[in-house]
Amino acid sequence: MSDNYQAVVVPNTPVSRPRLVEIEQAVMTFLWDRGIVSRQRATRRAFLFFGEKGYPPGPNAPRYVHTRAEWNWPDCRLGTTVPHGLNIRRRKNGSWFGDLNQAAVLRCPLCMAVQSDVHWWKSPFDLALKQACRIGSAVLVCPGCRTSTDFNEWEITPPSAIGKLGFVFSNWPPLQNSFVRELATVASSTLRHVQWLI
Ligand SMILES: [Zn+2]
Question: Distance from the CA of 104 to the center of ligand 1, in angstroms?
Fold first, then answer.
């Protein structure tokens, strides 16, 4: 089984650093108080993908996800099989939440032409992606209609998001939509929920 990642991301619109700290504190306090994640970080580096220590799920986590037998949930102790947990990803210049290894499909917002097999490390997409991460927007020229449009307006499959702050749930069953909406209320911010497999 692949590893499943879901991220709840604060979109990369201009947000001040103090505001991001405030959002992070509000969301984590909510997650801790509701028993959705443990207050204690994992004691070992179980989250190799991000190279960080994460928070294991709390006792009430199953109430906020779609339960499926194959997830072996809620038996999600760290170190048993694949780690389940929450990592906070903060990046000063913004980062990409999604699978960069997989070729993407992009749809031009103007002519609707589809470009398949787009690899993020290849120009011009790598440049657009880096710029969008850094300053929140980037211009991408459609090879079909030759029009320049903002990177953020392109429809990208699989779904992905760019942001300076994201809460990454590793190997959790799909989060309930109502839970994601509740997080947005707690954060007083729009949030994007994306999911990818690796
Ligand atoms: Zn086009």
Answer: 16
